[in-house]
Here is the input.
Amino acid sequence: MGIIKIKNLVHDYIRRDEEGNVEGTSRAINKVSLEVEKGQFIVILGHNGSGKSTLAKHLNVILMPTEGSVWVNGKDTAEERNLWEIRQSAGMVFQNPDNQIIGTVVEEDVGFGPENMGVPTDEIWQRVDAALRAVNMVAYRHHSPNKLSGGQKQRVAIAGVVAMRPQCIILDEPTAMLDPVGRKEVIETVRELNEKENVTVILITHYMEEVIGADRVFVMDQGEVVLQGTPKEVFSQVELLKKYRLDVPQVTELAYELKMAGVELEDGILTTKELVEGLKRYLLREKGKDREGK
Amino acid sequence: MIRDITIGQYYPADSVIHRLDPRVKLMGTIVFLVSLFLFDGFSGYLVATLFLGGAIWLSKVPLKFMLKGLKAIFMLLAISVIFNLFLTDGTVVFRIWKIQITREGIRMAVFMAIRLVYLILGSSLMTLTTTPNDLTDGMEKALSPLRKIRVPVHEISMMMSIALRFIPILLEETDKIMKAQQARGADFESGNLIQRAKSMIPILVPLFISAFRRANDLAMAMEARCYRGGEGRTKMKPLRYKRRDFIAYGVYAGYLLAVVGVSFVFQRIF
Here is the structure.
């Protein structure tokens, strides 16, 4: 069994009027099943309101399933005694960097999680050191978080999760409020954690560039997983993605348009390098054809 | 105006006072404030001045910086001096029509002024040399016996430190909202007091909504990081008494004895 297993998950948000009577329900997640293996880099894609953030909150037991089950590290999230163990093994990074930093000094914030877990003082310091090194923020350890840039704040938030030594980190649109530089910083940090420390990463985003290099991609729309596979497999379905109001990376879009115009290219081109290689091959082939023709 | 108040500000420096345990500084401040009311004579003030002066000198906080904090209480000071000066009965020194100044009045006014100034200086010395975080930590530890009578000491100190963390963020936000409203033609500067107070509503409403939203987010983030109250929590920077802290306690005891002793002895002689 993988580190995360979701089976037939349903989540209804219940709207209540002022007296607390149920006015109606809206289904945010509808019969989602998916499995994540240890050490994978997973991306969940979807436009606003597709249910991706609701799904993330289930992995950290901030929300409980209306129907179906979620297992994190083999533990059922519906059972209350598993709560703290699950929160420790599946750390969560949120969208707004300002609203998730608790400490008034960077290193104290990173130590907040271990403090809550009751880790002995000496070990807290070791964990904080290691976590700050992992996100490359050692130089800022005595700074006030208010004076950092958005990308740096988000790296501190990641360090705060890393210090809890989770097996899995869930990032709920961590780059949505950042500028391009900050976005790059954060994604690089997450990649490195995945490769070096073998932490399972579940990245929730609507930026297509962040998908490249993922092991597996899930596309969500209206509470359902509508498409899944490797980035290549997913991005070869440009039309389907457009139907779900998702943009494909520029390079993929260009390759797609070229193909539509009659240039023979393979499906699911994700990087500039791939496109260049593909075009080179195509041109060579064309040259060959020309010669044959002469 | 707000910038003038030095109470609650931190003055970064590397001094013995800065390095003292926050509990020691809290205790010292209380001892000093209480001591100001223990004596009533010139000699007691002399000892208190020596003690306060010594502490300020050790703290490496410039005296000018400390005195700036007094601006905020100037009105209060003036009022109490005037009241004491004119409304104390006793031997009359000076008199115009119905207004009289007595020897006792002068004495009371001077002592009251010194007392008030020392109260402010003493407490601002503590906040100037202690980071807000250390201060809340110190208070949590010092008040921890109250947990037995179910005072939520940990929760209170957690709230204080979170509030301190969010002050700059909310200030920034207020600024942003003000600019946004001004861009749409809001006027905050003209009109009488009531009109101006009314014009604050379009700032306060969005500010409150956003503060609640932030609180919601923060609570979720804290829960996601396994926060469940003070129970079973360890400290990254636990407070431990060092040698200098015990020495400081000794100094306090010496000071208290000196204040009480000196004024007692002087009262006997004069």
Observations:
- The longest helix of chain B spans residues 153-183.
- Residues 191 and 197 of chain B are 9 Å apart (CA to CA).
- Confidence is low (pLDDT under 50) at residues 1-5 of chain B.
- The interface with chain A takes residues 131-133, 161-162, 164-165, 168-169, 214, 217-218, 220-228, 232-238 of chain B (CB under 8 Å).
